[in-house]
Amino acid sequence: YPRAIVTGRVLASEEGAPSVNDSNANKVFRSLPLKGDHFAGGNFGTAIATFEDSGPFDETELLRYCEDPEWSYRALVKGHEIHFIPEITVIHLHWRGNADMTEVYSQYAYSQGGWFGRRLRHYDAGFLVRLVYELTRGAKRWCVGTLQGDLLRKVNGRAFVVDLLRGVAAGLNGH
Asked: What is the C-alpha to C-alpha distance for residues 173 and 159, in angstroms, rounded to an integer?
């Protein structure tokens, strides 16, 4: 796939690792799916020309923890397909405790919100749908985690409501 990006599964070394994708289905993405399971920034390869055409990762403070999905979006917009091949697998080492995961989820959600806010500032209405989708998923995780006493689900859900909205505000304000 000379103009494409290949990516695959990211499995957890133990329960609780973030950014896991354990899909077993081969998929080809030509546009950004609503559920962001199309790309694993820690497990991808592409030709240098494809990377250069899409531009570098945006490592600004606002997008520091969302630079890989944002980059994959730009690659898709440029016409590069993303091939998800489950046989291409890495293990995500999980070394953080629950207290650290609260901060990690907060950072992920804030950066994702920042990306959404930037796209909304450019009148990209598709990101309004994504925002509602993520807020709904976050609220559900927050409620279910609270009711079931699942701390990780609860703090993840809270982050993807509260911190996601903080990030959207920052992105809309030009940060």
From this structure: 20
Query: What global pTM score does this model have?
Result: 0.91
- End-to-end CA distance of the chain: give it in Å, rounded: 36
**Bridge partners, 12 (sequence order):** 92
pLDDT tens over the chain, length 175 residues: 788 999 999 898 877 777 788 889 999 999 998 887 778 888 899 999 999 999 999 999 999 999 999 999 999 999 999 999 999 999 988 777 778 889 999 999 999 999 999 999 999 999 999 999 999 999 999 999 999 999 999 999 999 999 999 999 999 998 8
In order of 32, 77, 172, the CA distances from 2 in angstroms are 20, 17, 36
